[in-house]
């Protein structure tokens, strides 16, 4: 019987997804990672890239037909661009997969931790007292984002944290738990955790559909996820 040793770049972590042992009294309430396909489509824009490359292949075929090529000749002339496009899309999808696997989001009873980075790992700690508000975005694929607005004196780098930030919030970046499964339940866990630490805090998480429409209750009031 042959026993093979296996190694992981995160074997040195004292606690999965965390840079150090938890202090006394702190416990993990939830951990998760982005869904790779949703991350690829949303953050890495694989769908838009596919449309872009597809238009290039179609333009190549149209140009060949316009210049007198027969249909079989035009199709053969599109094989090269089509293959290169497929390779590019697979590379981007592969990067998204690696990013999803290297990322761990953690909610404890005191803070949120984002461990991310494929080639260069980094960890962002966000104590609850550093978070001003949260926004829950629901997607049609049943994943969602929880964007965290930090206090103004808390600075994070948009480029360093990407793709784990809310898109286009560059001047005041919002660290984001992106493309997570069961986002509503995670938002409820976060709201309860914040309330336990800061009983007087407003622990409302605004929920919206993809595209920005606010979710409403039957009475027409905004839907709130609260402890």
Average pLDDT number: 82
Q: What are the secondary-structure elements, in order, as H or E?
A: EHHHEEEEEHEHEE
What assembly state would you assign to the polypeptide chains in this entry?
A: single chain
Strand content: 15-25%
Strands, total number: 9
The radius of gyration is: 22 Å
The geometry reads as elongated
Low-confidence stretches: 1-8, 211-227
Structure annotation, total helices: 5
Based on secondary structure, the structural category is alpha+beta
Task: Write a short abstract of this structure.
The protein is an alpha+beta fold and 227 residues long. It contains five helices and nine strands, in the order βαααβββββαβαββ.
């Amino acid at each position: 019987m042959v026993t093979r040793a296996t190694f992981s770049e995160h074997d040195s972590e004292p606690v999965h997804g965390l840079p150090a042992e938890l202090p006394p009294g702190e416990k993990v309430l939830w951990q998760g990672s982005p869904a790779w396909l949703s991350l690829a489509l949303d953050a890495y824009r694989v769908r838009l890239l596919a449309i872009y490359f597809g238009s290039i292949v179609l333009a190549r075929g149209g140009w060949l037909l316009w210049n007198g090529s027969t249909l079989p000749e035009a199709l053969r002339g599109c094989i090269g661009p089509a293959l290169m496009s497929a390779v590019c899309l697979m590379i981007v999808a592969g990067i998204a997969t690696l990013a999803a696997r290297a990322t761990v989001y953690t909610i404890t009873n005191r803070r949120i931790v984002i461990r991310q980075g494929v080639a260069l790992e980094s960890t962002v700690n966000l104590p609850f007292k550093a978070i001003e508000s949260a926004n829950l975005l629901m997607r049609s694929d049943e994943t969602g984002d929880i964007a965290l607005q930090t206090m103004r004196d808390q600075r994070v780098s948009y480029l360093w944290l990407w793709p784990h930030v809310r898109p286009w919030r560059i001047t005041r970046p919002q660290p984001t738990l992106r493309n997570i499964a069961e986002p509503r339940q995670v938002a409820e866990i976060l709201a309860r955790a914040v309330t336990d630490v800061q009983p007087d805090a407003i622990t409302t998480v605004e929920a919206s559909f993809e595209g920005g429409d606010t979710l409403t209750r039957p009475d027409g009031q905004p839907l709130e996820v609260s402890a």
